[in-house]
Amino acid sequence: MTAKIAYDDVEVGTELPAQSFPVDRAALVQYAGASGDFNPIHWNEKFAKEVGLPDVIAHGMFTMAEAVRVVTDWTGDPGALVDYGVRFTKPVVVPNDGQGAVIEVTGKVGAKLDDNTVRVDLTVTSGGQKVLGMSRAVVRLG
């Protein structure tokens, strides 16, 4: 499979479709099972609060994975992803209220690079706060 977006059709500033990703406690338990990360800050409210967190928080790698979906959905090919990195700025707090949290992601092309690649800059927020900083993906386009 190759990216459905052509390099020549993209300009710096091109916006990717924004997406919202709901997160509830069940998703965190499922992710813990898949990743093997059973740290109690991701499922035990009492423990999370005892260590100074406001509540249970989402796994950082879970948050990263949800955010980059905006890029892979846009390209149409997860294999087009060449590089991806973030800085964790705030946790995604996931209350046990039947609603959980929402991760909001927007992206735009920040640079056209060599070899049909572009850098996509992501803005990732939850609860009105930026949860990932310097969130950048490099993808190879068709």
Describe what this molecule looks like in 3D.
The chain is α+β, with helices and mostly antiparallel strands and 142 residues long. The protein is built from 3 helices and 5 strands. The chain has helices at 25-35, 45-50, 60-75, and strands spanning 15-23, 81-88, 101-112, 117-126, 129-140. It has a 5-stranded antiparallel sheet. A hairpin with a 4-residue loop joins strand 3 (101-112) and strand 4 (117-126). It is elongated. The mean pLDDT is 97.
How much β-strand is present in the residues?
35-45%
Strand order of the largest sheet: 1-3-4-5-2
The helix-strand sequence is EHHHEEEE
Shape verdict: elongated
Using only CA atoms, what is the Rg?
Answer: 16 Å
* Rounded average pLDDT: 97
Instruction: Report low-confidence residues grouped into runs of 5 or more.
Output: none
> Can you give the helix content as a percent range?
10-25%
Helices and strands: which structural class? Answer: alpha+beta
Helix count equals 3
What is the end-to-end distance? 10 Å
> How is the biggest beta sheet arranged?
5 strands, antiparallel
Q: Care to count the β-strands?
A: 5
How would you concisely characterize the structure shown here?
This protein is 23% helix and 36% strand.
Topology overview:
Elements: E1 15-23, H1 25-35, H2 45-50, H3 60-75, E2 81-88, E3 101-112, E4 117-126, E5 129-140
Antiparallel strand pairs: 1-3, 2-5, 3-4, 4-5
